[in-house]
Amino acid sequence: MIVIRSCEGHDELETCVQLQVETWGYDQTDVIPRKAFLVMQKVGGQVLAAFDTDIPGSPPNGSPESMVAFAMSLPGVKPPSKDTNGEARPYLHSHMLAVRERYRNRGIGAQLKLAQRNDALARGIRLMEWTFDPLEIKNAFLNIHKLGAIVYHYRENFYGVSSSRLQGGLPTDRLLAEWRLDSPRVNHILEGRPAAAQVIEERIQVPASIYRWKASEGDRERALAVQLENRCRFKQAFSKGLAVLGFTRDAEGNGTFELGPLSQLESGI
Question: How far apart are the first and last CA of the chain?
Answer without folding.
Answer: 34
